[in-house]
Specification:
The complex is a heterotrimer of chains A (138), B (290) and C (128). By secondary structure, chain A is α/β, with parallel strands linked by helices. Chain A has one domain: 2-Layer Sandwich (Transcription Regulator spoIIAA). Chain A contains 5 helices and 5 strands; from the N terminus they run E-E-H-E-H-E-H-E-H-H. Chain A has a 5-stranded mixed sheet, sandwiched between helices. In chain A, helix 1 runs parallel beside helix 2. Chain A is globular and about 35 Å long. In chain B, the strands form 2 sheets. Chain B has a 5-stranded mixed sheet, sandwiched between helices. Chain B has a two-stranded antiparallel sheet with strand order 6-7. Chain B is rod-shaped and about 100 Å long. Chain B has 2 domains: 150 residues, Histidine kinase N-terminal domain (Globin-like), CATH 1.10.490.70; 128 residues, STAS domain (Transcription Regulator spoIIAA, 2-Layer Sandwich). Helix content of chain B is 61%, strand content 12%. By secondary structure, chain C is an alpha+beta fold. Chain C has one domain: 2-Layer Sandwich (Heat Shock Protein 90), CATH 3.30.565. In chain C, helix 2 packs antiparallel against helix 4. The chains are: A alpha/beta (138), B alpha/beta (290), C alpha+beta (128). Chains in contact: A-B, A-C, B-C. At the A-C interface, helix 2 and helix 3 of A face helix 1, helix 2 and helix 4 of C.
Chain lengths: 138, 290, 128
């Protein structure tokens, strides 16, 4: 089955949506991403929507869901690179994507995540050792 | 042939054209400052030729006939171009009225029988009246196009996006903010944010005469859209009267960063970007980054 | 064209986009129209179990536009006024579909009779 690839970049996960999503694909993405957050203990999720020309209420809801699910698993979500036309449309639609951070591009998104998450030095060391079990609860 | 007029008019084309130009010269509809005599004559000649070619025994009583399509096309072209050139509606109307006069004059000269003359004149009259109406319609349409273009230009020039600092955009809004205007403001602003990679936008509304709930809604929309893009939006230039009306109307602006002046908004922007403005010792004021 | 399954949505959106691009609609208006179309097609699938969509190019005076007609034979909507309210939904969505869609387009018309189906017509003018 077709899937959206999820890349791991250090503490973050990066998802680049390149195709127009149909519903099943978006729902898959939602569950895949949540599982990846658990598996990798990611602290942040970056969703790059710069290639997406349409975000309707369903897609908006998926994005909101991902953010809220990640949030309760202790990861922040940043939507990056939204097209101006898409932003205007979402606002008109009455969908301000509450609880989702946004950034202009991936780089800014990373900066934003870094500023939101204060890394503990020890934690990073522990992670470097591959000892993942100690900090599942913070 | 029932309608003698058709034949007569087609035969007497040259006379009609002469008569028509004489009429035009005599009337106050001639504007040699806007169109040269030769051009006008060529225009008239073309119109008359097409008109007479289209005129047949059958359609003389039927102005809606498809045969006149081409005549109407040319006529529309003439009136639209006249509207754009700045002719008045009277001048454009007189142009076609003088054609009617010319046609009727020729008929008068050629047809002896009064009953015949009367019925033929009436038909031509009706036909030409219809053409006149079309002329006016298209003339107004031409004018509307001019107005539309100007409206576009006004909204284009009235919403400049200024780069006040690296990463900070300012957008002074002058005049009333309606929904189409908001649309343009939003588009320009968001486009500019993408192009410059700015993270803060300042909307200055000191030039907006009044803020009612609708305008406030538009502002909130713009701010939300900016945030969706990943930039922050500050609204500045809130005058005391605006603050009063906003509170009296019960509009909630608490989600938006608002400042009274552009300079304090800029200060806030600097703070957000962790920039500091310091006075350089012994020298001119300059900005430095910490 | 007929919409019966989820996979029809993306091709349909592309069709609408083609029309909009051909007309020279601005990017923002294009996006609004396609988003609105997407919302309505979703409704068509969810509540009407599929249906028919018609895409037409229309013009009024000097303004061109695109008209989309969505017809389904679903259960219909009992209270249209309520359905047009922000935040109301019989399904589990956010209830933004219909009122949100209305804000995105120039003209919005909905007709529905319980048990027979629903017809939604939207128009988006090129400059508005």
């Amino acid at each position: 089955m077709e899937r959206i690839p999820i890349l791991r970049m250090g503490h973050f996960l990066l998802v680049t949506i390149q195709v127009d999503l149909y519903d099943q694909l978006a729902e898959n993405l939602e569950s895949d991403l949540v599982h990846m957050v658990k598996k990798t203990q990611a602290k942040g999720v970056l969703i790059d929507v710069s290639a997406v020309s349409i975000i309707d209420s369903f897609m908006g809801r998926i994005l909101g869901n991902i953010a809220n699910m990640s949030k309760i698993m202790d990861a922040e979500t940043v939507v990056v690179g939204m097209q101006p036309a898409v932003a205007i449309t979402l606002v008109e639609l009455g969908l301000p994507l509450k609880g989702v951070y946004s950034a202009l591009n991936v780089e800014r998104g990373m900066q934003l995540l870094h500023s939101k998450i204060i890394f503990d030095q020890e934690e990073e060391e522990a992670e470097a050792e591959g000892d993942d079990d100690d900090h599942s609860i913070e | 042939m029932k309608n003698e007029a058709v034949k007569i008019l087609q035969k007497k084309k040259k006379t009609i054209l002469e008569q028509w130009s004489t009429n035009q010269l005599a009337s106050d509809g001639l504007r040699d400052d806007l169109i040269s005599n030769e051009d006008q004559l060529a225009q008239s000649d073309e119109l008359l030729t097409v008109f007479l070619n289209a005129l047949t025994d059958d359609n003389i009583e039927d102005p809606a006939s498809y045969d006149f399509e081409k005549v109407i096309d040319i006529l529309s072209g003439i009136s639209i171009s006249r509207a754009k050139q700045g002719f008045s509606s009277r001048e454009t109307g007189v142009y076609i009225f003088s054609l009617k006069d010319a046609l009727l004059t020729v008929l008068q000269q050629e047809i002896q029988d009064p009953t015949m003359l009367y019925s033929q004149s009436l038909k031509i009259n009706k036909l030409l009246d219809n053409l006149t109406v079309i002329t006016f319609e298209t003339f107004i349409k031409g004018r509307e196009e001019v107005i539309l273009r100007q409206t576009d230009e006004i909204s284009e020039i009235s919403t400049p996006v200024i780069r006040v600092w690296d990463g900070v955009l300012a957008l002074p809004i002058i005049g009333t903010l309606d929904s189409s205007r908001t649309q343009i403001v939003m588009e320009n602003l968001l486009q500019e944010i993408v192009e410059t990679g700015s993270s803060i936008a300042i909307l200055d509304i000191s030039g907006v005469p009044a803020v009612d709930s609708l305008v406030a809604q538009h502002l909130i929309k713009t701010v939300s859209a900016t945030r969706l893009m990943g930039a922050e939006c500050i609204i500045s230039g809130i005058r005391p009267e605006i603050a009063q009306t906003v509170v009296h109307l019960g509009i909630d602006l608490s989600q938006i960063i608002t400042k009274s002046t552009l300079s304090s908004a800029l200060k806030t922007a600097f703070q957000m970007m962790q920039l500091q403005v310091v006075k350089k010792q012994r020298e001119k004021v300059s900005f430095s980054k910490i | 064209m007929t919409i019966v399954k989820e996979q029809d949505v993306v091709p349909f959106r592309n069709r609408v986009k083609e029309y909009a691009v051909k007309m020279g609609m601005s990017l923002v208006n294009q996006t609004k129209l396609i988003t609105a179309a997407s919302e309505l097609v979703r409704n068509l699938l969810k509540y009407g179990k599929g249906g028919n969509v018609k895409i037409e190019v229309i013009n009024q005076g000097r303004d061109n536009g695109i008209r989309l007609t969505f017809v389904d034979q679903g259960p219909g909507i009992e209270n249209i006024e309520l359905a047009m309210k922000d935040g109301y939904s019989t399904g589990k969505s956010m209830g933004l579909g219909l009122p949100g869609t209305k804000r995105l387009v120039s003209e919005f018309n909905i007709q529905s009779s319980v048990g027979k189906g629903t017809t939604v017509t939207i128009i988006k003018w090129k400059n508005g």
